[in-house]
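Sanity check

After download, print the first record. It should look like this:
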Amino acid sequence: MTIEEKIKFLKDNIEPLSDQIYGNGYRASAYMTDGTFIPCVRFRNSKPITELAVKRFNDERKGKSIFSRDSGMGYKDIVKTFVASGNRINEYDIDRIEKSPCAFPKEILDQIQGETTMGWTGFCVKMTDGKIFGYGSSFLFDFFQMPNGYSANDIKEIINHSYLSKDGDLKEHKVPFFDRPDDYDERNIYRERQYFECYIDGL
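Expected structure tokens:
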């Protein structure tokens, strides 16, 4: 794929998740030029994060930091955050893009109702064949692990604030809860997946 073909594919086939600070995010999979398959890649236009970085650098130079002077967050730390953190891949190292099996459709994501307890959102996913799987996330919702033989497009509905017991029964979480239920089976919880960022000018 050329860069123009990649942009066209993302705009024509992927419904973006909007972000007021970083702009639209397009979730997809990518095959690298060496054949490596990366199932979770979020594509964005580079302009918003570039402008944010420039603003933050200028603010730090002028002493207008959003952090207090004794916080330990200085100019170099801010630069480091932008240039030496996060998982990133180059557009020119990507051979082609396709839909990700790990990206919940936006209408499914919109069904998830906030935190079940502080720092944790627990829910169950019902598939089109009627099977139910336990899910949870501490923060990220862009991509999720998927059970063998299923993709995100097989999801029928979200059952909020719920879990599967050790016996396989569908149970409701107490909202909020402070201790996990005795029959909670953490090993059977599908979690969020880490992903790579790719910035494309003109996206």
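If your output differs, re-run the checksum step. Summary of this record's structure: The chain has a mean pLDDT of 91.
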